[in-house]
Each structure stands twice: as structure tokens, then as C-alpha cells.
Amino acid sequence: MKVFNKKGFVALAAIALLAAACGGSTSGKTLTIGISLPLSGSALASAGPAQKGAELAVKDATVDGYTLVVKVLDHAVNGAHNPAQAAADMTTLVGDETVVAVVGPFNSGSAKAQIPVSSEAGLLQCSPSNTNPDLTKGDAGATLRGGRPVNYIRVATTDDIQGPAVAAYAFAQGKKAVYVVDDTEVYGKGIADAFAAKFADLGGTVLGRDAADPKTTDFTAIVAKAAAAKPDSVFYGGVTSSGAGLFRKAMIQAGLNVPLYGGDGIQDGNGEGSYIAIAGDAAMDSFSSVAAIHDIPAAADFAAKYKAAYGEDPGSYSASGYACAQVIIEAIKVAAKAGAVTREGVRDAAVKAGVTYSTVLGDLGFDENGDTTQKVISLYKVEGGDWVFDSQIDYAQQ
User: Fold this and answer.
1) Which helix (H) or strand (E) holds 193?
2) pLDDT at 7 over 70
3) The CATH number of the domain covering residues in 27-157+297-366
């Protein structure tokens, strides 16, 4: 055993205080939080704000005895999320022994590809935006994680709430006859199914249903079929990178001048590659949702901090990305207090029943499936070339 004299103890204390003052680690241990999102091409408009939110949360955080860093991987291919690349990126993150948790992915199809990989490794994932119910619920969720403990959580509520919320929104605006189109993907088809079922339950009529491959660029034939049905509205289930903006543009060019409704897959601001940027003037009379709270606590403070860091206002999922990282960081702190930070320790702390996290989104927790207890849907419309908040509904209070 090495023995220190009094002067040695003073020197060690001084070093520790200096390290703490500089925000560094007193133990030299580095923990990595992975960020797995589609971050190029049209996908960047949606997922980029979530990345920035997560990185900002890590920058803001300190964990005694540890240094936190991020490792960002982009699983977009040709401008759209790619499930195969998402799975490969998760394998990369699993192979890095310093990675203790991951923020992401953004799209439900990518989550379906990643969860079996992260689950086998006991690696916690927190998605800011995935909404397909089958990722977590029932037999489908259990099968996806191979019967292993829950390791995947999300701060966005699910499409069995979001789809019906948009249907009720359209119906309340007087829409009674809708044509439904989806992009055939996990998210797009799922939310379209949920929308159509609720719209019919409310007394509306689904005049027709069509599907377009996510690589579609010419929507002429589908728009012609929709126009022939004479709908008073159209619902598009999918994301901008699978053609939502092009579809809307084709509608207006063909004279199908009715409102378009969609989920959070088209709610991606108005920057380059966004639904609004691609659709142009045709984006008017479009409506969308976000599967998360809009009226976050201390919204002005968060917006100011975000703008100071990035020179731009927060996007639709900036706060959700920040909240996912907050949950992960709190779980790391719990694991650290227990003695050592391991992947399993972080996972178990995050999904522990009855725990409430104070996040930028407000207080939230996770149920036995990993789904958020915060079940808020926010609704938006295009005005003046941007998405404008209309209202939000708390389905936990319904």
C-alpha cells in the first residue's frame, strides 16, 4: 500500500478540485452516449434537431467521476433512413465498450432493425420520435427484444394515439371523406391504419387507400386515383424523405386542392429538405401532428439556450432529443452511485418502474413496455411558410 504524507493529501485534493472546476473527470473514466439518427439529405431536416438537443443535454451535464462524450452515427442512405444501415450502426455502437446508452433512432423502421441488436447487448436506447406501437407493446414488442428485459424506451407517444388524434382533428374541421396514402414503411402504414380506423369510427368515410414505395418520385397515377374519388381531404402516412412533399406538390398541380393531413413524419420545419421546402407554395393547407408536448415548461429558457448554442430556434424534436439524453444521464448517475457504471446498470435504472424524470418536456416516466407516461399530441398547420402550433391534447387525461 502506498502511504501519502499530509502534503501529498493536500496535493491530491488540489488536483481533484481543479478537475471539478474545469468540468473534467476526477477518475479518468470516459462514458460514451451514442447518437444514432439519419443525418443527411432530406432526413436531416427532421432528425438534425433531435441530434442537437441530445448533444446540448450532454454538454450541460456533469456526472461525478466520469467524462461524458457523444458518438454520432448517421444511418441515412440516399437522404432517407435505412434500416439495414441503422442495424449496422447499432452493431458498431455495441462493439464500443465505452458506449453505455444510445439516443435514437428517429424512424420506427430503423428501430425495428436496431432493437434486437441493442437488446442482446443489454444496451439502453431512448428514441425521441419513434411511434409505432409494435416496437414495444404486446407479443410484437416481446418478440422484437427476444424475450429479454426492456432496454428500449421512448419519449414520444405511440401511433395508436397519434393516428386517431389526427383523425379527430380532421373530423372536427368538417372533413367527412378522406383518401389515405401511405409509404409502405413501418411508421407510415401504421399511422395510416390508425388514422383510417378512427376516421371511420367517427362517422367519416375512407374513400380509398393507396400505397407508394418510399422511393417514389412520380405520384401522378396515385393522385389521379385520389382525385377521381372526390375526397374533401387526404391523409399521407409517411415521412418527408419518402416523398410527402412531392406528393403534396403533385396534388395541387393536378387540381386536387384539398387539405393534406399527416403525422409527425412531415413536421420538420421549413429548412432545406423539409416538407415545406419541397412542396413550396403547395404546402399551404397542410396539417400535421407531433407525438410530444409543445407547451414544454420553461420553453423560453430552452429556446434561448438552444439558439445560443446553434444559432437557430429549436425544431420539433429538439426538446425530445434533449429529454432522452437527460433520462440517460440520470440513469448513469444512479448506476454510478451503485458502484460502477455498466450497460445493464444504466438500462435497469432507466426502466425502473415508478421512477419519474424531471426533463425539459416536463415530468415523465416509462411503463412496463418502455413507453412514456406522457401522452400528449400537438397539432400544427402551415401558415406563412412555416408550421404554426394550433393545439395540444393530453390523452393521459382523457
Assistant:
1) helix 186-201
2) no
3) 3.40.50.2300
Domain extents for the chain? 27-157+297-366, 159-290+378-397
At 32-48, the pLDDT tens digits run 999 999 999 989 999 99
Q: CA 175 from chain center: how many Å?
A: 29
Cβ neighbours around 310 below 10 Å, total? 17
Going by pLDDT thresholds of 50, 70 and 90, the confidence category of residue 12 is very low
The set of residues, in sequence order, having a beta carbon less than 8 Å from that of 363 and lying 6+ positions away, is: 356, 357, 374
The fourth-level CATH superfamily of domain 159-290+378-397 is: Response regulator (3.40.50.2300)
CA dihedral over 214, 235, 131, 280, signed as positive or negative: positive
Looking only at Cα atoms, what is the longest distance across the chain?
A: 89
Specify the pLDDT at position 9: 28
* Percent of the chain's residues with pLDDT above 70: 93
The Cα–Cα gap between 394 and 245 comes to 29
Nearest one of 80, 119, 84 to 102, comparing CA atoms: 119
Q: What is the pLDDT of residues 53-63, one digit of tens each?
A: 999 999 999 99
Helix (H) or strand (E) holding 66: strand 66-74
Grid cell locating 275: 416538407
DSSP string, 46-61: HHHHHHHHHHHHHHH-
Bridge partners, residue 125, by sequence: 102, 152
Question: CB-based burial of residue 110 (10 Å sphere; 0-12 exposed, 13-18 middle, 19+ buried)?
Answer: buried
